[in-house]
Amino acid sequence: MVGLWALLLPMASLHRLNQHGRGDAAVEGRPKLLLVSFDGFRWDYIDRVPMPNFDTVMEDGVMVKQVENIYITKTFPNHYTLVTGLYAETHGVVANEMYDPVLNRSFSVDTDSRYEPQWWDEAVPLWVSIQNAGGRSGAAMWPGSDVKIRGQFPNQFLQYNASVPFETRVERIIQWFSAPKAEAVDFGVLYWEEPDESGHLLGPQSPLMDAVIAGIDEKLGFLINELKKAGIYEKVNLIVTSDHGMVQLSPDHIIELDEYVSRDLYTWVDKSPVVGIRPKEGKLDEVYSKLVDANPNMMVYKKENIPAHFHYQHNPRIMPILLEAKEGWTITQNRSETFMLGNHGNDNTLPSMHPVFIARGPAFRQNYVKTFMRSVDLYPLMCHILAIPALPNNGSLSNVKDLLSREPTPTPPSTRPPAGRDSYAPLVGALLGVAMVVGFLVVFVKQVTLKQLPTLTHRRREMSQPLLQ
């Protein structure tokens, strides 16, 4: 009995500590996190022109030099990865334009199909997870955030409208974070279309891009000032990133499919530089044979032969044949189609496809530079900051824990609400203490018994392999 009380007393003390709020994130207030994406902001843009506001965030926080995003390096797949931690083959948003042979339906970012939950429901975005954990979320134009995913919208959201100015989006999300405690959001996402649109039009090498990039820094400065005016700049963890980079194209580097294969043999899905080809019934081998060696600047894969490191095979929305133009090249059916001077979508290991990443706030170190991370690692990092459990994902917190101001603990802080006057918390705490003692005794007896058996080595590791549906 003496040994039993020796174990129970520390547990009772721990229970009293949690009752008074110390060590309990929910009692002190859930951490706040704002994730911002400047679409198409390539990682090296920050060194191109003076960027005082980006510099301020980096000095106060962290920067990652190279972020390897997911394949394909397009807008919708990568934005959904940022909030799910999953490769495209698992979360199901495999391209900006898709065909689902099971549903026999098509998806496009330019049609109302983007609002249909069936395209998104293969994964659970972070705004749904935070709400399921008792928190609140707000979304300003983030891809997919105006869709009812797993039966839920964000608590606060703006339906996508490209004409809404950045400043209006910022003002709205600041209102959500600054609302009375019961209504304030804990997690917010904010999206802006630039510098992607200008990068497509001008090409990243154009001198005219300098003003566009400087304009993004000014917009970040506006966001910072609004956070300060609201008195929440030091409370909110701010992450500024992007979905992909951008590469310069040339009208001299065009691959015309009409030169190699008849359009009567296939359906074209999605756009350059990665194109899905859906052969007509019984025509797969014929189409593949016509394309596989057609042009040295175009890689051609049957679905089952797509390189494993792309994590881009195991979903019916990935077409039977995949074409990928080499960096700087464009695939068209013929030259009558619209040509862009800049594009993205290529191999995610190419530096030109990599996005920017900076962050600051109470959760992050100061003036720290990290060499490399993967975009799938952001999701478990955000879950840790928000003190909620991460769903199964392709990332790893251990890969990015050095960005944090404090070493992560093995388990997230408690998120239960504070005890009220009529709470059963004391009784529950005592029962938990007894249960822990009983568990300890069981383990002790088991260990004594196992000493008679050969030792087995167990290794606990975080999920890092593709999750297949």
TrEMBL record:
Residues 399-421 are annotated as: Disordered. Gene3D superfamilies: 3.30.1360.180, Alkaline Phosphatase, subunit A. The keyword Transferase does not apply. InterPro entries: Alkaline_phosphatase_core_sf (IPR017850), Phosphodiest/P_Trfase (IPR002591). Residues 1-16 form the signal peptide. The keyword Transmembrane helix applies. Keywords: Membrane, Signal, Transmembrane, Transmembrane helix. CDD domains: Enpp. This is Ectonucleotide pyrophosphatase/phosphodiesterase 5. The lineage of its organism: Eukaryota, Metazoa, Chordata, Craniata, Vertebrata. The chain crosses the membrane at residues 424-445. Pfam families: Phosphodiest (PF01663).
